[in-house]
């Protein structure tokens, strides 16, 4: 809804930040963490399994935060 003339107001649509980058990065982190978790369990390595779980959960949390921040602001 823009008007022609000197008194135009900027649109209320959000500009700038894209949601693709942060979400793709977070999903990749979750996938790498899940792969490490599976590899750690297959090799009977509790340290790698725990680290994979931590990375996967961090990826999920970052993806949710990115989506929530984009929708709210």
Global Rg: 20 Å
Total strands: 0
| Main sheet makeup | none
Number of helices: 2
SSE order: HH
Oligomer: single chain
Describe what this molecule looks like in 3D.
By secondary structure, the protein is mainly alpha-helical. It has one domain (20-72). Helices cover 68% and strands 0% of the residues. It has 2 helices and no strands. α1 packs antiparallel against α2 (46-72). The longest helix is centred in the C-terminal third of the chain and has 27 residues, at 46-72. The two termini are 20 Å apart. The model has no long low-confidence stretch (mean pLDDT 79).
Brief summary of the model shown:
With 73 residues, the protein is mostly helical. It has helices at residues 20-42, 46-72.
Provide key terms for this protein:
73 residues; mainly alpha; 0% strand; rod-shaped; transmembrane helix; membrane; transmembrane
Helix and strand arrangement:
Elements: H1 20-42, H2 46-72
Helix pairs in contact: 1-2
Keywords: Membrane, Transmembrane, Transmembrane helix
Transmembrane segments: 20-42, 48-67
